[in-house]
Design brief:
Layout: E1 32-33, E2 40-41, H1 50-68, E3 84-85, H2 90-93, E4 101-102, E5 106-111, H3 118-132, E6 136-140, E7 144-146, H4 148-154, E8 161-164, H5 169-181, E9 185-191, E10 201-203, E11 208-210, H6 212-225, E12 229-235, E13 247-254, E14 257-265, E15 271-273, E16 286-290
Parallel strand pairs: 5-12, 5-13, 6-8, 6-9, 9-12
Antiparallel strand pairs: 1-2, 3-4, 7-16, 10-11, 13-14, 14-15
Length: 305
């Protein structure tokens, strides 16, 4: 029937409709960004687009969801609510969000080789934490044996040091995760040279091969979930690899002084702290003897994994 428009008006023919397809036509308003924040405005209304109003109303809920999941965003620089412990070095504390080590997360400390002062950097915080709370300080795969007299000088009781010499990369990874989840440790120090040999290592019942980058995510989740400080001591080659650590440092030695390079600082900024241990004279925390015996068996059985 003529005049029946239940199916809508016929489409206009561009040859007969001179206004068809023109971007300025009232029937086809153009939506263009009008602010650096990404809010979209219509040229006719000069008000936020409908979808932007809807997403804006949900922003507090999204922020809460991000916070609950422990996600960090780059626009949150200098804003941190993480637990910290002062490093014992004022110049370094001034460069770290909250003024200290993030003790409920993963810290990576990179060095050219072992024994250049990495434990000197960690000792004041470990001693303060050991004095304030009970629990073990776990050493997994250290290249040298802990030096009991030097630990006492720093204020760390040797009887609260648990040294583990894993037989395989899987054992090292298992020991680190179990120590972090145990609820009986205040810090877990993991030397990763065994884990970074080859193209990855196998761990867990699924026998999935992991890279150190993937394992860093697991360490970060375990440390933050169980509120335990995880410290991975890695070689300088790791500087070219990504990591889930909340803090990454490189300890450089030049002309007899030690400089700390802040490579990644969640909630802060990269930088350099020169000669962080100036004026400190105390014994080395490790003695240069191979850390082989006595052996602490960290090998789990199949059901434990």
């Amino acid at each position: 029937m003529s005049g029946d428009h239940r199916h809508g008006p016929p489409a206009s023919n561009s040859r007969d409709d001179p206004g068809a397809g023109e971007p300025d036509s009232p029937e086809q308003p153009v939506i263009t960004p009008a602010s650096s924040s990404g809010v979209f405005f219509s040229p006719q209304t000069a008000e936020p687009h409908e979808t932007e109003r809807a997403s804006g109303a949900q922003r507090p809920e999204l922020d809460a969801a991000f916070a609950a999941a422990g996600l960090w965003r780059a626009n949150s620089l200098t804003q941190t609510q993480a637990s910290v412990c002062p490093t014992g070095y004022a110049a370094l504390d001034a460069c770290l969000p909250g003024g200290g080590w993030p003790v409920a997360g993963l810290t990576e400390l990179l060095t050219g080789h072992a024994g250049v002062g990495e434990l000197r950097l960690l000792m004041p915080a470990l001693a303060a934490m050991a004095a304030a709370q009970s629990g073990w300080v776990v050493w997994i795969g250290p290249p040298y044996m802990p030096n009991a007299p030097a630990l006492l000088q720093w204020g760390l009781p040797p009887e609260r040091m648990l040294v583990i010499h894993p037989r395989s990369p899987a054992d090292a990874a298992w020991a680190a995760e179990q120590a972090l989840a145990s609820g009986t440790c205040i810090a877990v120090l993991l030397w990763t040279q065994m884990l970074e040999q080859g193209r990855g290592f196998v761990t867990g019942q699924r026998r999935a091969r992991l890279s150190m980058q993937q394992f860093s995510r697991r360490l970060q989740v375990a440390a933050s979930t169980h509120h335990c400080w995880a410290v991975a001591l890695r070689g300088v080659a790791a500087r070219r690899q990504p990591s889930a650590a909340v803090l990454r440092l490189y300890l450089a030695v030049r002309e007899g002084q030690r400089d700390v390079h802040l490579l990644k600082v969640r909630g802060g900024y990269p930088g350099v702290v020169e000669h962080f241990d100036a004026g400190i004279d105390i014994g080395a925390a490790m003695v240069r003897e191979p850390a082989s015996a006595p052996h602490t068996d960290a090998t789990p059985n199949a059901t434990q994994r």
